[in-house]
Design brief:
Odf2-rel; developmental protein; about 0% strand; mainly alpha; single chain; microtubule; cytoskeleton; differentiation
């Protein structure tokens, strides 16, 4: 009986342990189920974030391509403007050179005209002086003739 009693106590103790262990197992199963649910939710969020990251990566790539295209267009426009400006600058330099040449020619023509004018003016002065001299000589001769005629008559 004593042995039976001890065995009964052991059985009861083992049953309590079994109940305790079963309760712990249930708690562990619940914790595991919660963790699995949490893991499942995290995986869903991870997949959603991965899709979002992929979408953002595609958008970023498109934005980068668009920016590259815009930079290339801006660079082409700038090069075009630079070529146009260089062409205009060459045209202006050519025009300036022509204008300088024309100005130099005009200066030379002016100087030539001034020299010819001065030469003609000097010739006219010389002729005027000669004419005046001749005129004075003639006046003197006329005066002489008048005197002579007065004396004769």
């Amino acid at each position: 009986q004593e042995e039976k009693k001890q065995l009964t106590l052991k059985v009861e103790e083992l049953e309590r342990k079994l109940e305790s262990t079963s309760a712990q197992n249930i708690e562990f199963l619940q914790v595991i189920a919660k963790r699995e649910e949490s893991i499942h939710q995290c995986q869903l969020r991870l997949e959603e974030k991965s899709r979002e990251c992929s979408s953002l990566a595609r958008q970023l790539e498109m934005a980068i391509e668009d920016a590259k295209r815009q930079v290339e267009q801006a660079r082409e426009r700038a090069l075009s403007r630079e070529r146009t400006a260089q062409s205009k600058m060459l045209d202006l330099e050519t025009q300036l050179s022509r204008n300088k040449t024309e100005l130099n020619q005009l200066h030379r023509s002016k100087e030539d005209a001034e020299r010819r004018y001065e030469s003609c003016l000097q010739d006219l002065r010389d002729r005027l002086e000669q004419s005046e001299s001749t005129n004075r000589s003639m006046q003197n001769y006329v005066q002489f003739l008048k005197s002579s005629y007065d004396n004769v008559f």
